[in-house]
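Task: sequence design from structure.
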């Protein structure tokens, strides 16, 4: 494990996740997703680890752009939470999408880094709802 502030390492994991999704790098996603991973989509549907990887690997979900606005990371022991506001575009099952979204993720620390346990994506609020004291905050292209 890197000898850096834990929240910075978690933000690094968040960045690597975004890169893996954009690049459709299934090997990286396979290494980053916890065996009990769950993804909750904006419409409320849930996908387990294998279904999430299948959506991306088959091209049913293609994310072509992710533009981060703000990332907040909080670490407590071996658990971490990221809250990331970004603009995303692409297509899902033949339907184009473009939206400003809020991604809230729960991570678990393991000896080699961080594994993503839960990802919830939904509409972003117009204004921040967390106090800056809630974690390490990076803005603009983090």
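Answer:
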């Amino acid at each position: 494990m890197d000898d850096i502030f834990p929240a910075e390492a978690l933000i690094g994991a968040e960045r690597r996740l975004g890169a893996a999704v954009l690049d459709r790098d299934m090997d990286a996603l396979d290494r980053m997703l916890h065996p009990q991973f769950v993804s909750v989509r904006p419409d409320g549907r849930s996908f387990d680890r294998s279904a999430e990887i299948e959506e991306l690997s088959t091209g049913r979900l293609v994310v072509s752009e992710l533009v981060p606005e703000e990332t907040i990371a909080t670490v407590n022991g071996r658990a971490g939470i990221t809250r990331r506001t970004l603009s995303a575009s692409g297509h899902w099952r033949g339907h184009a999408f473009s939206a400003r979204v809020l991604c809230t993720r729960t991570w678990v620390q393991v000896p080699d880094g961080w594994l993503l346990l839960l990802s919830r994506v939904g509409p972003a609020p117009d204004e921040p709802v967390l106090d800056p004291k809630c974690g390490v905050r990076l803005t603009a292209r983090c």
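The CA atoms of residues 88 and 99 lie 6 Å apart.
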